[in-house]
Design brief:
The complex is a heterodimer. Chain A has no helices and ten strands. Chain A is mostly beta strands. Chain A has one domain. Chain B has 13 helices and eleven strands. In chain B, a hairpin with a 1-residue loop joins strand 5 and strand 6. In chain B, helix 3 crosses helix 13. In chain B, the strands form two sheets. In chain B, strands 3-2-4-7-1-8-11-10-9 form a nine-stranded mixed beta sheet, sandwiched between helices. A two-stranded antiparallel ribbon of chain B has the order 5-6. The chains are: A mainly beta, B alpha/beta. At the A-B interface, strand 4, strand 6, strand 7, strand 8 and strand 10 of A face helix 4 and strand 5 of B.
Amino acid sequence: MAAQVPLVAYLSLGEHPCLIARQCRSCGARFFDRRNACASCGGLAGFDDVALPPEGVLRTFTIVSVAAPGVPVPYAAGVIDVGGTSVRANLVNVQADPGHLSAGMRVRLSTFSLGHDRDGVEAVGFGFEPAGQAEEGDS
Amino acid sequence: MADSVWILGAYMTKFGKHPDQDLVDLASEAALGALADGGVTIHDIQVLAAGNVTGGPAGIGQQLQKQIGQTGIPVYNVTNACATGATALRTAIMAIKAGEADLGLAVGVEKLSGAGLLGVTGTQRAEGDPWLPSGRFGSVARMDGWVGTDTMPGVFAQIGLEYLHDHAYSGVPLELFARISEKNHAHSTLNPLAAYTKRMSLEQIMNDVMVAYPNTRPMCSANCDGAAAAVVISDAALRRLDPGQRRRAVKISASVLTSDPWREACQVLPDVSTLTRQAAAIAYEAAGIGPPDLDLVELHDCFATAELIHYDNLMLCEPGGAADLFDSGATWRDGRLPVNVSGGLQSKGHPIGATGLAGIWEVCQHLRGEGGPRQIEGARAGLAHVIGLGSACGIHILEKAA
């Protein structure tokens, strides 16, 4: 099997891809990057990795039509409430169109290929797609 | 209770394209303008706070001194994203409150014409290059555009739509935000210093280039060049000045700066509401007046979506009632509580380091009765608000001299 790397370190690949948050041992606040102390409680007890559930609710979104060079447009971006943890992501496998997106809709994690480098390593990104639409397909 | 601090002089350059003026030229025009407006000179100034965001590492304050007068006073070069101008003002105010100075000068300046989309960073990887994790998220490619958006129009679009969803708005979001933009573009026609002074119809705004739904181009703040400045003075020093200077002085009833308190979601989408609400509560308490006492508000409409939520954050309406407040017509210049009579950032322009002080200048014009064709008649109290993402919120409440 060809090697894969995740787009971001907090995306865990494998048979059931999931997002991994770092949870403060004192207050439970969650982060996706490293912190020297907890931004919520200031605690120094450290962090544990916790896997987030694959489904959540879209809290808000936008459809970006003007972006930096090299970014394909339009794309839909949003914030998803995943079991009480806010995640930012693109909305995928759905038309980037306000008629197809609404705050409050259920969405689930989906991964996609960003391409291979010259060594044959594949980068894998993630987004959220409408839940209840689309059969099990990629991943 | 400490003595009041006053604005003695203020000035704003024309906002727009200034290809023949560099940062120092623009800052000098604003600084000298504010000094002349206050009837003082650089020799009277005992502290200088200078704000600029994108101009590079050289201290703009010291560069300004070399252009208009090197007197050896302490200089604070400040930056706080789009709240930089308000931060410069507050820095000078704090020096006066601390008793270290009687007169201070705050200047904000920016050159942003042609800067394009703000907020996007990262480089493009060449096809075939190895995927190498880097940065705080260990990402192998640019995150903007692949893991949500860093573009400012997109960030504020999400903030606006979230508000409408949370409050079960039943109308058409695009049209609501376009109507807010229509108001500010209409207001700008009376402001000769605004970068854009063209009235735009609702249809024009809705059908213009979509940048990040629901923000079309006219709903986005305009990158431009500009500077603004204010001279601040202690109560004791003001009493020694001429009656004419005292009459035009504007009282700073509240000067507040806040940053983000912890909120779960602000880790992934900036939360510009919580720190604004906190700043507003502190400011109203300090000033001893509330939203019903305000005659005008200049708030940070970096996007039409932002203006809506700040009606609520500044407590200009009942919680959740921002759309109703706007629909009532209250925030038009002939309404009960005019908001952004300058044209706002959407038409006046948003040279980010200058914006905070430009809002102060606008409110001063009305409190002094010097607003010309756009004067809000009888204005006695006004509020100026700015947000710098990250975040910083500056709120100043100003009152007419008694």
